[in-house]
Write a structure and sequence with these properties.
With 438 residues, the chain is an alpha/beta fold. It has 11 helices and 23 strands. Helix 4 runs parallel beside helix 5 and helix 8 crosses helix 9. Bound molecules: adenosine-5'-triphosphate and magnesium ion.
Length: 438
Amino acid sequence: MTKKTVFYCESCGYEAPKWMGRCPKCLAWDSMKEFKIEKEISRDRTKPTLITDDALPEERIILNIPEMDRVLGGGLTCGSSVLIGGDPGIGKTTLSFLIASRMIELGYEVLYVSGEESLRQLSSRKTRLNLKGPFSILTTNRLEDILSAIAEKVYHLIIVDSIQSIYNSDLSMLPGSINQIKDVSSRLIMEMKKKEITHIFIGHVTKEGAIAGPKILEHMVDTVLYFEGDKTLPYRLLRVTKNRYGPVDEVGIFQMRPDGLVSVDNPSRFFLSDREHMGTGSTIFPYITGTRPILLEIQAITPKTTFSMPKRLSLGYDINRLYVIVAVIEKVTGRPFFDRDVYVNVTGGLKITEPAVDLAVAASIISSYKDKIIGSQTAIFGEVGLTGEVRKVVNMDLRLKECERMGIKKVLCPLGVEYTSNMEISSVKDVKTLYERL
Ligand SMILES: Nc1ncnc2c1ncn2[C@@H]1O[C@H](COP(=O)(O)OP(=O)(O)OP(=O)(O)O)[C@@H](O)[C@H]1O
Ligand SMILES: [Mg+2]
């Protein structure tokens, strides 16, 4: 063992190899403090390995939580590191308890490390969620406790709730500070990867919604998931933003119930539960998340404005695209909207970024403006160009298949769509045609 000396700024965490009177990053005076780090000199050297054309087998565990398995790209990869971030109280601990319970049911050894809740709290949560099996729980905030637990027993899965609550007592920085998170996560990942233990870190998020701590945390792990949703609504979305073992545009949908989280198998039915009451300004749009289509309702209202500048407001749809859609409707129909406010809403609190929704947004605005009901039997999709033309979009067959499955009778879509079914496929050349047809 040798000792290495480093200096950290107490106020911003800047690391320097030598002492400085003033931190070059945050410009604080006399903030550099000395740390001694023990460094092991290893005589073993890792040698390069030749990989052949035959891929090394990748082992996955199917958790039997359909939405989670799908988002992970077909189950939890053995030995992988997963980071789950989310707002306070959104259900991160509930989700990780569910994963732990399923792993225990499958016969794996699981250690649940909690730096936030007491044993009593966790035990009553387990009873409330009706989860089976004896849970191995370690309530600690110290990194050393986790490392010694790993050294003493073989675990297949370790869940750390939360990574921000764990600290290394050798460092003088506060728990949750950038350098603590960096140090704790890199040591844990290194140790667990070496022992091929699958690990899940729960992460807090900042006010802006990003995972709290250094960006490097997201680089270090294999998979980053965000657990999101409107706390006033019963469902939660599990969104993947990074995955070394699967696609990154999948979204898992769960329902939060008093007895825990339940996977939503038929999201179209879930999001369109109130189809009978669709009035003017409402249209159905077949949305694609990852590989899965979901029918959603797009709503718009266009009341006479009482402001000097008409208001444009959008929830779940890009506001700039709304400006474009309104401008296109004005141009191709010759009807100005300067005396009208335009409000658009994607029901269920989903955020849609794909341009395929443009035509449904335009149809909702026109439906509200003309006071004509489109109804719950018609679905609409297509991208709208600046000259008002309607363009083809990706995954049209998938969208049409979902519409057919959900009993839609008519689909308004771009020209050139070929799909054989009992549904009426009505091609829309441009926004002007749409305006005349509604
Ligand atoms: N005793 C309870 N009875 C019914 N519902 C509860 C109870 N405790 C928690 N919940 C519900 O479970 C939800 C999720 O709680 P959970 O602790 O899993 O969230 P979290 O994301 O881990 O929060 P935190 O950021 O505080 O760790 C809560 O918002 C609440 O609606
Ligand atoms: Mg929690």
